[in-house]
Amino acid sequence: MSQEVDAQALSLATPTAGFQLSDLVVYFLRLGTFGFGGPIALAAHMQKDLVEVRH
């Protein structure tokens, strides 16, 4: 009984990702292929795309 309750609590407390690994790989391949301007420009683009647009 205790293990069942612990498993349910763990499943409720564990956040699930809204994306798959393939989505992440495709995003970084696209960013590396079409991104230019150095690391600061890439960081700004990722901030804009991942935080502001997709949130």
Describe the structure.
The mean pLDDT is 77. This protein has three helices and no strands. 76% of the residues lie in helices and 0% in strands. The protein has 55 residues and is mainly alpha-helical. It has a domain at 18-55.
Brief account:
This protein is 76% helix and 0% strand.
**Count of helical stretches:** 3
Q: Encode the helix/strand succession as letters.
A: HHH
Cα end-to-end separation: 39 Å
Compute the gyration radius: what is it? 18 Å
> Helix/strand/pairing class, anyone?
mainly alpha
Average of pLDDT: 77
Number of strands: 0
Shape: elongated
Largest sheet: none
State the helical fraction: over 70%
Strand content is under 5%
Give the SSE map.
Layout: H1 2-13, H2 21-34, H3 38-53
Keywords, separated by commas or semicolons:
76% helix, mainly alpha, 55 residues
